[in-house]
Amino acid sequence: MTSSIECQNFLKSLQLLDLFTKIGAKNLILCPGSRSAPLAIAAGELNKLGILNVFNSIDERSAGFHSLGISTASGDVSLVVTTSGTAVGNLLPAAIEADKSCKTIVFITADRPLRLKDCGSNQTVNQEEFLNSVCRSNLSTNLKGIHENKDEDILKIVEIVKKQILESPGPIHLNIPFEKPLDISLKDKKKGLELFERFYLNKTHQLLKKGNYYKNIQFSRKLFKSFKLYDPGIIVVGPFQGSKRDLNSFNSALEKIQAISGWPVFVDPVSGVSSELRGLVKNWELILKKNKNIIHCDQILRLGPLSSSNDLENFLLNFEGLQILVKENNFRKLDPIKKSFEYDFGICAFVKELLGEFSDYEKKRKPLINLGKDLIREGEKIKEILNEQLFLNTEITEYKLANLVPKIWPGNYPIMLSASSPIRDWLTFSENGTLTRECFSFRGASGIDGTLSLALGIARVTKPLLLVTGDLALIHDINGFLVENAIELNLTILLINNNGGNIFNNLYKNNLEEQELKKLFLMPKSINWENLAKGYQVPIRNVSDFDKLREAFDWSLSMQKSVIIKVDINVENEMKEKNFILKKILTN
């Protein structure tokens, strides 16, 4: 039975996918195609056995981002399966974001065997090279076809994947040539399943059980000694790039170093920092915008990549003291201003090493330093101005949403912020309100690509979820609704309809004519959102004031499925009001 190519294709596919479940993969997104048929049939059988969740997507680009959302929310490796040809090219945007966000997805792509390469064979391209520039590893089964692989070959591939996940999480490309025939008869499939269940399904593999791989930590002892926790400093926490499973230990280490230093802390909305941490400074970006000279210290501890704040970047660029940048799961350079010493091994290892250089007396908890008290007082003053000015009228604006939504969306439910305007407004105006909940934003490549698919992937794991997005970001990825049962997922979409990319108004409005601005940057589109939502069978509700927004949130949560709440923004009024409030803050 197992001597035929089609039977071996099926059996090897079963072995491979089963081994991936043994290293933590629980979810697979399956895209349509013929060359990938053995993988699809094998995934279906593992789904029947209850050991692998399988969801289908007709759009490979959406599939990649959906898988990224699942991986981010769960902390697990996730799988995507596609056929050959241009299907593989559509994975690149998600692979780029997974690379920059340090999230592990295994892109499994079916291919033609070597004998059909470079001879004009239909749907045969150099797909094995498409993802090379962004994937941590680029692997292949036997180039003649997976039927030529031995059991140990399949096991070796999965071992490489697991090692890569432990050492440096990120996207992995596994290209699998399949020789025809690809289909398998019902009789042979039954025999193949019996063989798989008898010899492979419950088989344990010692090598797959090994724990963390040893990391050779080497960092300047002299630098540790120059880092003086008993002198003033600040802690700046950017977007969290570690695994969700490591967030508690991350916060514990951060709390420890803050407790013994007494330093104030600036945090990004998607830092993952606990709201209980002492020393959190509210409205820190507005403080820097108003008076960066308020900060007098000679050392900064930075965690993770930079926030999307020009004021913070300028402050760090001009800072003359010591900067140490601690990274989670990222071994590449991560400091665009090139002013820091970079530590690759995470905050937990950093704190352990650092405290080894201090005496027991120096490790005792210290009160919040005077700099921290001054910054917190300044943040409270700005908060008072915001509270006075933000809601003098009931017109909905983007910056008002950033302030209000964290207060009226239930605190135990997560939020995802799309790139572009929403994440910047929340950084400036949300008053750290996002710290009371999980908050997601994909800031690796910081594009609007895959916004809806990412949110739906997160909603498969963590729900109910609120997605805050602009109109261009949503329409750019509207096919995310075509992922299997996407409209049944508990996702509330707060659609900020400003008829184009409002961020460009802030950047270019003063130097371009209105028509130039629209054609070259805003690119407004006349979209009937009600009809579009109806076409995807997604309920939609229009909201014109903040009282109605509270009601709309209650409605969306009662629906327990994907819904859209649309708010229309008057861009001219938005800019005038925002500039007025910023001027009032900066002059007080």
Features:
588 residues; alpha/beta; Rossmann fold; 3 domains; six-stranded parallel beta sheet; 22 helices; 17 strands
Structural features, described:
With 588 residues, the protein is of the alpha/beta class. It has 3 domains: 5-208, Rossmann fold (3-Layer(aba) Sandwich); 221-370, 3-Layer(aba) Sandwich (Rossmann fold); 390-587, Thiamin diphosphate (ThDP)-binding fold, Pyr/PP domains (Rossmann fold, 3-Layer(aba) Sandwich). Helices cover 42% and strands 13% of the residues. The protein has 22 helices and 17 strands. It has helices spanning 5-22, 37-48, 60-74, 86-89, 92-101, 151-167, 186-199, 221-226, 247-261, 284-291, 310-318, 346-355, 370-389, 398-408, 421-429, 451-461, 471-476, 502-508, 514-522, 529-535, 546-559, 571-587; strands at residues 27-30, 53-56, 78-82, 105-111, 137-140, 172-177, 234-237, 265-267, 299-303, 322-326, 341-343, 415-417, 439-440, 465-470, 491-497, 540-543, 563-568. The strands form 3 sheets. The protein has a 6-stranded parallel beta sheet, with helices on both faces. Strands 13-12-14-15-17-16 form a 6-stranded parallel beta sheet, sandwiched between helices. Strands 8-7-9-10-11 form a 5-stranded parallel beta sheet. α11 (310-318) links the parallel β9 and β10 (322-326). α10 (284-291) crosses α22 (571-587). The longest helix has 20 residues, at 370-389. The protein is globular and about 80 Å long. The protein starts with a helix and ends with a helix.
Give the topology.
Blueprint: H1 5-22, E1 27-30, H2 37-48, E2 53-56, H3 60-74, E3 78-82, H4 86-89, H5 92-101, E4 105-111, E5 137-140, H6 151-167, E6 172-177, H7 186-199, H8 221-226, E7 234-237, H9 247-261, E8 265-267, H10 284-291, E9 299-303, H11 310-318, E10 322-326, E11 341-343, H12 346-355, H13 370-389, H14 398-408, E12 415-417, H15 421-429, E13 439-440, H16 451-461, E14 465-470, H17 471-476, E15 491-497, H18 502-508, H19 514-522, H20 529-535, E16 540-543, H21 546-559, E17 563-568, H22 571-587
Parallel strand pairs: 1-2, 1-3, 3-4, 4-6, 5-6, 7-8, 7-9, 9-10, 10-11, 12-13, 12-14, 14-15, 15-17, 16-17
